[in-house]
Structure formats: C-alpha cells, structure tokens
Amino acid sequence: MNKAREDKVRTYRIFQIADYIKTHNYPNVPALMKAFECSRSTIMRDLDFLKDRYNMPIEYDEDKRGYYYTDPTFVVKSVMLSEGELLTVSTLLPLMEQYKNTPLESTFKSIMTKMIEMMPNKVEVDSAFSAQNVQFIKDHLPKIDEEIFNNVFKAIRSNKTIEFAYRSISKQDYSYRFFDPYKVLCQKGNWYIIGWCHSHKDFIVYSLSRMKDLKITGESFQIKQDFDLNKHIDPEFGIWQNEQEAKKIELLFSKDINTYILERTWHVNQECRQNDDGSVYLSYMTNQMQETFYWILSLGSKVKVLNPPELIERIKKETSLLAELYKD
User: Which parts of the chain sit beneath pLDDT 50?
Assistant: First the structure.
C-alpha cells in the first residue's frame, strides 16, 4: 500500500476509534483490536495520536478496564482530510477577500479556521505551494450592509416583497422602492439583485451596496411567468440590464495582446482566431452592450470594433469626449 493510501486509511481508522469509544461502553484494547482488525501496538499508537494531536479527552478507567471520554459532551471532529489537504485549505483563506464586502467573509473564514484547527501543531508537507508564497490582489469593492445582505436572501427564500431606499449611480438623493426579489447576482465581487420593481412596473437590477433602510414587508409575491433571466442579462458576460435582442459583437485585437485574448474564453458562444498578421478576431452574441463598451474602452487602441454599427458610433463619441477633456 502506498504512503498516500496508508495515510487515508489511518485517518479514517483513528476517527472511527474515537467514535467507537464514545458510543460503546468502556471498550478496552482487545475489543478495539477485534473491531478494527489491528495489532495492539497500532491501537495504542492511534490512541496516543488522538490524545496528543487532537486533544481528545480519552482516558483509561482502571475499575471498568476500558477507555472513555472524560468530557461526555465532546464531539468528534471527523473531517476526513489529510494533513496535506488541510494545508491546502489554509491557502484558500486569502481568496475570501472577494467576499470582504459581504457577511459571507466572516462565515467562510470561520469555516476554514475550524478546519485548520484540526491540523496537528507540526505539519511537514513536501510542497512548493503554500500560503506564504502566494499574494492575492483584491478588487476595490463597495461595502454592503450586513443586515441588507441577509434580509435580501431571507426575502428571496420566503417570496416576500421588500422596500428600501436606493441611490442610483448618477443621483445624489435616495428614493424608495417596493421590489419583489427574484435572484441575487454576483459579478466580479459586486452583488446585485434582479426582480420586479413595483415603482417602475418593470424588471430591474439593483446594486446591494446602494441600498439602505431595507425592510421585508408582509406581502408575498409570485415570480411573473414572463420573467426570463437571459432576456435581461447575459450570465456569460455581464449583468447590465438590457432587454434588447442579443447582437453579434465583432472585434479585432492588436497582435500586441494576441496571447491575452487567445488564452481566455470570453463567451461560451465565441469565435476566436488568430490572423496571419498576428491580430485576433473575436466575435460573440450578447445583449451586454454596456459591459462590452466599458471592456473595449479599458483596452484602448489595442482593439477595434467591427460590428455592430451602434457600438462603433458610441466608441467614436466617447473617444471624442475624452480628446476634448484633455485639450490644453
């Protein structure tokens, strides 16, 4: 049996021994040897391991001639992970940064910390990958109020209408909305909700970070039959609300960034190819004109819009405004 297999078998066995002692009446070493088909030395070694490494309150009762828990309320932490797997889990903690603006951050960290606490005090793993060798660069995300975040999910689960004050991106003041929340959306760490807005009599996407004073009303709702998520957003590309039909986007990228474009999948229905001169042609169908527009602007002169015409005109207008802004 190879070492990895032996470690998994041993891990499984020692937790089974811990559970056996808890659920049986003072089992002794011969009883444990019979139950787990192990030698005396193996059982004794496993018992020492449970007490020394995991601080399990297992003791031997001389009068009853068997093992027991000095703390009857002790719960066996039977998470079946190897030491190496637990070390890998520890490297996931920095990834929680993308949830830093939500209550999920503390929840995820609590779960991970509890798992890491199961590790022995000393762990030796022959691996080039560790948390100290990786640096995560986080996005700058808006803060979301914990009560708003939790109540949005609660309202979705119970199909209850919510009311809240909302400040649009271009406004200075808040206005109140009555809203039936259908689904929560997360794009690049930003959290949104889509549903039926009573105020606008339409399906609307709202940002959770721009809400305040949210309350769950006593009014129940049913999701409207004509609601189709794909008509309002493109789950493959973005969540800018747009009820227009999907259009074919055609882009031509400079050879200077051809590897960057070729190594990624930008859309599930994309066509992507490199031309003889090193430039890259990319096309895909989407209703996300706004998201595409901002993406193209971020790449500057490294990309040219070939289609559709309205997107070309919008890029021309924006670049003209930029040129005017930077005139001396």
Answer: 79-80, 120-129
The CA distance from 278 to 273, in Å, is 10
Query: 3-class SS at 102?
Result: coil
C-alpha 44/C-alpha 38 separation (Å) is 10
128 vs 49: CA distance, rounded Å: 27
CA distance 297 to 302: 10
Pair 51, 36: CB distance under 8 Å: no
Reported pTM: 0.56
Coil, helix or strand at residue 60: strand
Contacts (Cβ under 8 Å, ≥6 apart) of 49: 14
Tell me which amino acid residue 3 is. Answer: K
Q: Where are the alpha helices (DSSP H) in the chain?
A: 3-23, 29-36, 40-53, 83-90, 104-116, 146-158, 229-232, 258-262, 289-299, 309-325
Calpha distance 84→305 (Å, rounded) = 49
Is the Cβ–Cβ distance between 14 and 50 less than 8 Å? yes
Question: Cα(245)–Cα(232) distance, rounded to whole angstroms?
Answer: 9
For the residues of 141-179, what is the DSSP string, one character each? -----HHHHHHHHHHHHHTEEEEEEE--TT-SS-EEEEE
Question: In this predicted model, what pLDDT tens digit does every residue of 174-220 receive, in sequence order?
Answer: 999 999 999 988 887 788 999 999 989 999 999 999 999 999 999 99
Q: What is the 3-state secondary structure (H, E, C) of 11-53?
A: HHHHHHHHHHHHHCCCCCHHHHHHHHCCCHHHHHHHHHHHHHH
